[in-house]
Structure formats: structure tokens, C-alpha cells
Amino acid sequence: MKGKRYAMLAMALVMLFAGALAGCGGKENTVKIGEVTRSVFYAPQYVALEKGFFEEEGLKVELQTTAGGDKTMTALLSGAIDVALVGAETSIYVYQQGAEDPVINFAQLTQTDGTFLVSREAAPGFDWNDLKGSVFLGQRKGGMPQMAGEFTLKKHGIDPHSDLELIQNIEFANIAAAFASGTGQYVQLFEPQASIFEREGKGHVIASFGTESGRLPYTVYMTKQSYIAQNKELVQKFANAIQKAQTWVQEHSPEETAKTIAPYFKDTDQEILASSVKRYLEQGSYAESPRLEEAAWNNLLDVMESAGELKQRVELGELADNSFAESAGK
């Protein structure tokens, strides 16, 4: 009887140990992503999720919206998320603070600014000088939308802090509502909000900051250097899934992409989704490869320097690891 009890106990321990191993294995293949906002601008990410590209690589992805660059980076540094989808400038800010465990960019998702200049009134024959003396509803200081916006204005001979009234004290999530309620003559908006305002007659898209500011590693997947060191195979699989999704978006129509990402934008009309995707495709906002390009990185440094947010220039190799993107491309 005693031998039987021991045998049963041993079997129970084996099963418990096996279950623990299985649970650990599942956890090891789980990646928690924090996206800085929910946006059509990130369409390839939602395609990767909906088309099962992460699953094909053996990964389970948990996506959460962390609402803002500061919150996203805090979540990454604290370990609340494994990977952040946020502007590459945040990795530079962390580096400038002397982080012992720097944040490394390993896969680019978008390669231009994603905002558009929206005018309250129709502006046929628009000229950038029309902004002088106007009230401009801008973005958060130090964030990529605002820096790219200021970079563009300066390129056209406009000082954003003296040639117009620049409003920057409104939270990102409330900017569209503020404009709709009457604040500002011009505003900087992402899609699909820009197209929604056009349809509703609340604004008119008159220029693209993405086109004007040039190629930038605008939104990038990044993680801590220590995480990469401990999870190289996982990071490679992640980059593979993103490459598959980027290729899929380039090879399919805006309507097909809109249909695929619709579950992430349940309150947005399909036609608006499709027109937003089309607009981003036409200006080359969706990166065709997760690889970060040196010229685009240097342009980012120029944009940050122009905004007074760069303490010193940082080489691409210091804060980016392109090995995963290059392997994914093969």
C-alpha cells in the first residue's frame, strides 16, 4: 500500500513538473506589446495579428495601448511590457539620461511622420506662409509629431514660436475634439481623424507633414538591451512576423487592408479606413522592411536637433540592432 502511495505521489509530481514546464514554455513565447496609441498608421501590426503571422512564428502576442510616449517608455523600463511600439526618439531620450540598460530599436514599422495639416476653412492654392499670424493647434513638446511639424515649418521659413500662436497644452487624445469645438485655425492630425473631419465638413487636409519632413524611423519596435540578450530567438521571430505583415500590406489593396484591420477600429467606417490606408501607402509611410536606415536616422537627429531636444548626436549602431530585420528580409 505504501509503495502504491509513493508511486501515485511520484506520478503527481511528474505531472505537476511537466505542467509547470509547459506553462513556462508558453510564457517564454508570449510577448507583451505596448503601442503608444491605436492608429491606422500602424496597420501592418494589426495585419500581423489578424493574419496569424505571429502565431506562425510560434509567438503569442498580448497588445495593449499605453497612451503616450512617456507612459509607453515607463511601461517598458519597468517590465510591464516586453516590447514598445513608439517613436525612435524615446530611445534617444533614455540614452541621454545615461541608462545602464539602453533601449534598442530592432524593427521599424513606419518610416515617415503620420500627421496631416488640416485647415478649418477650405484653402485652395494653399501656401505655407498662410500660417503666419494664425492659431495653430500643435502636438506635445518633444514628441515626434510636434518636432516633425516644427521641422517642416522652419523649412518653409516659419518660426513656430514667433510667427504663429502655437497651442501645445492639450493632451494628445483631446486634440481632435479641441479643434472640432473651435480651437485653432489649423491642426496637425493623424488618420483616420483627418479624413473623418473632411467627411464631416469640420476641416480640410491641405498638406502632409510626412511628405514634407522626409524619411524618419518614426514608429519602431524597441526593447531593453538585456531583453534582446536573453531572447534573441524570440526577437527574431517577432521581426519575421512584422516583415511578413509589411509585405502583405504592400501587396494588397487599401480595401483589403482596411477589412483586415477593421476589428481594431470598430467605430470607424470602412471607406474611411480604406482611404486612410491609401493615403499612407501613397506617401510611403508604411515601411517595406523592418530595417532602420542610416539616412533616415540622421534625419531624425536633424529634426530633434532643430527642436532643441538633442544633447548629442548618437550613431545608429548605438541604439539599433538591424540583424533581426536583415535576417527577416532573407
From TrEMBL:
It is found in: Periplasm. Residues 1-22 form the signal peptide. GO terms for cellular component: periplasmic space. Keywords: Signal. Belongs to the bacterial solute-binding protein SsuA/TauA family. This is ABC transporter substrate-binding protein. It comes from Paenibacillus faecis.
